[in-house]
Amino acid sequence: MDWRSDDRTGHGQEVTMRPESSLRGWSWDRVFLLVLALLAGGLALASRTLIVPYPQAVAWFESAAFFPLLALGLMALAGVVEVFHRRRALELKDSEELNSSQARMGLAWAMLGLFGLYMLAVPWLGYLSSTLLFLVASSRVLGFSWRTTWALSLPLSLAMWWVFLKLLKVHFGHGWLI
Length: 178
Prior knowledge:
This protein is mostly helical and 178 residues long. 56% of the residues lie in helices and 5% in strands.
């Protein structure tokens, strides 16, 4: 069963459940999305104390807080928008849209763990080397071949390094490597 965010159904498609519009009728996924959006917003507000080193004299868009603030702000905004989108969602029987039951949660947790290690590695190893290691490891976890892994990881890490360190002048601390 899938959910559709507008009130239309396809030709001959049955609706199995109409959502409640009151707060008591919220589904668990809407509540979870709202909690995640609030958490992302809170982390964005607390980023000055969470990100070390955070040079106070540097503008926020040239500091290590630039990317986390941008990502957390987008996550919070997208979560709130999605919560309101699901307000009028219909559960459709036999929908051809993406089915969340086919999600591979082990893979999602592995990628989340790799991203956590990446965040810890950036201040110690340096941005370029930790980004390259993260992209190589995540490509291998996703099942890419070695050739594809290196063809994607090396240019992407170099491009990201150039954009963040050279173009935007984002400060990531002093790691062992580049």
